[in-house]
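Appendix B. Raw example, untouched.
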Amino acid sequence: MKNDYKNIIHQVYEAFNARNVDKALSFMKQDVHWPNGWEGGYVEGQNAVREYWARQWKEIDPMVQPISVKANEQGEIAVDVHQLAKDLQGNVLFDGVIKHIYTMDKGLIKSMEIEKS
C-alpha cells in the first residue's frame, strides 16, 4: 500500500474540522460504512454521513487531529487521533486519544471503525 493513504487521511480530518463536508466526502465511496460515534450504530452512504454530521454539529463541536497514521497487518489504516468535543457553550465533553480504523478500496474510504478500548 502506497503512502498516498496518509495524505488522504490528513485531508479528510482537515476537511471535517473545517466543516467542509463535500471535500471530506470526496475521499469516500458512495456506499461508505461509517460509525455514528455520537448517537450509536452506523450510517451507510455519503448522504447518511452528511446528515449525521449536520445533526452532530448542531449539538456539539468536535475537532479531531491525527497523531499517527499507519497501515496495520490486515491492510487497514490505523489512525490514532486526539479528539476534543465541546458543547456549543464551549464546555469540554471529551478530550482524549482514540483509534480510528479505515478500510480503503481503490483509493477511497470504504469504511471506518472506532476501536473500542
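End of appendix B.
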